[in-house]
């Protein structure tokens, strides 16, 4: 991708983000759920992300068994886990959020790329619950079972909140690591201050070794000469000749 194309895409992304964050919240509540305010704020504070929709999770149940029995249509007990849609500037940014979501337990998360170039990461889970309770105004379950289902739904909500907390921590860690990787490493120290380059030092060490070798040979010759010239007088003329040969 050319620099011009990348610049156009980033400018378009900033326009999308500004428009989205300036719009009124279209949900019935009209605001972000309290349990995920910190997650939404973290993502929207990053220039490469903004959230388009979210729900912290909910349990839907008509109040009381008598209300279920009088319902004119089918009643359902439903638990809906956390869901979050994040628009991302680049595919690499989307993959970061997706990886954090998967590692936090949101196994149903995924990525989509639209024709206009919009990249969306959807954070979703698979631990939902949906149980029919009545049909045509007739209750299908006993009150004890309804109580049991309510306990199960509440347990799922607790697990849902724990996953949201893990997702926030994983997201923070991933974003911090990404920032550190973008920092430039300092240049290695220059070797100009060294008084002698490595090849010069090697040659110097070789010269010193050669000098030491010559000195050792000279010392061995002098000891050999001393042994020949100051030995036993009965050694004869042959040893004296050998000494003369060594002196020459």
TrEMBL record:
Reactions catalysed according to its record: 4-demethyl-7-[(3S)-3-amino-3-carboxypropyl]wyosine(37) in tRNA(Phe) + S-adenosyl-L-methionine = 7-[(3S)-3-amino-3-carboxypropyl]wyosine(37) in tRNA(Phe) + S-adenosyl-L-homocysteine + H(+)
Enzyme class: transferase
Region (Disordered), start-end ranges: 183-240
Sequence ranges of Basic residues compositional bias: 214-223
GO BP, one annotated term: methylation
Record pathway: tRNA modification; wybutosine-tRNA(Phe) biosynthesis
Pfam family, one: TYW3
Signal peptide: none
Coiled coil: none
EC number: 2.1.1.282
MF terms in GO: methyltransferase activity
Domain tRNA wybutosine-synthesizing protein: 15-62, 71-172
SUPFAM superfamilies with a match to the protein in the record: SSo0622-like
Low complexity: compositionally biased ranges: 190-199
Biased composition (Basic and acidic residues): 200-211, 224-233
Keywords: Methyltransferase, S-adenosyl-L-methionine, Transferase, tRNA processing
Entry similarity comment: Belongs to the TYW3 family.
Function in brief: Probable S-adenosyl-L-methionine-dependent methyltransferase that acts as a component of the wybutosine biosynthesis pathway. Wybutosine is a hyper modified guanosine with a tricyclic base found at the 3'-position adjacent to the anticodon of eukaryotic phenylalanine tRNA.
Name used for this protein in its record: tRNA wybutosine-synthesizing protein 3 homolog
Originating organism: Scophthalmus maximus
């Amino acid at each position: 991708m050319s620099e011009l194309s990348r610049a156009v895409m980033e400018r378009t992304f900033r326009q999308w983000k500004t428009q989205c964050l300036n719009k009124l919240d279209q949900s019935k509540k009209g605001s972000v759920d309290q349990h995920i305010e910190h997650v939404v704020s973290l993502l929207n504070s990053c220039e490469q992300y903004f959230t388009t929709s979210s729900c912290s999770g909910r349990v839907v149940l008509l109040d009381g068994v008598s209300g279920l029995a009088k319902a004119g249509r089918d009643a359902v007990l439903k638990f809906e886990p956390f869901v979050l849609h994040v628009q991302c500037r680049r595919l690499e940014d989307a993959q970061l959020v997706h990886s954090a979501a998967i590692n936090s337990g949101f196994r149903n998360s995924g990525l989509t790329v639209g024709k206009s170039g919009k990249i969306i990461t959807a954070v979703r889970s698979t631990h939902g619950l949906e149980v029919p309770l009545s049909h045509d105004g007739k209750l299908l379950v006993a009150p004890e079972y309804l109580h049991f289902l309510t306990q199960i739904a509440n347990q799922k909500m607790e697990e849902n909140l724990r996953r949201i907390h893990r997702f926030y921590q994983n997201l923070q860690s991933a974003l911090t690591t990404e920032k550190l990787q973008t920092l430039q490493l300092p240049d290695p120290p220059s070797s100009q201050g060294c008084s002698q380059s490595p090849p010069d030092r090697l040659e110097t060490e070789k010269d010193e070794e050669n000098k030491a070798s010559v000195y050792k040979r000279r010392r061995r010759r002098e000891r050999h000469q001393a042994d020949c010239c100051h030995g036993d007088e009965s050694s004869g003329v042959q040893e004296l000749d050998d000494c003369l040969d060594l002196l020459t």
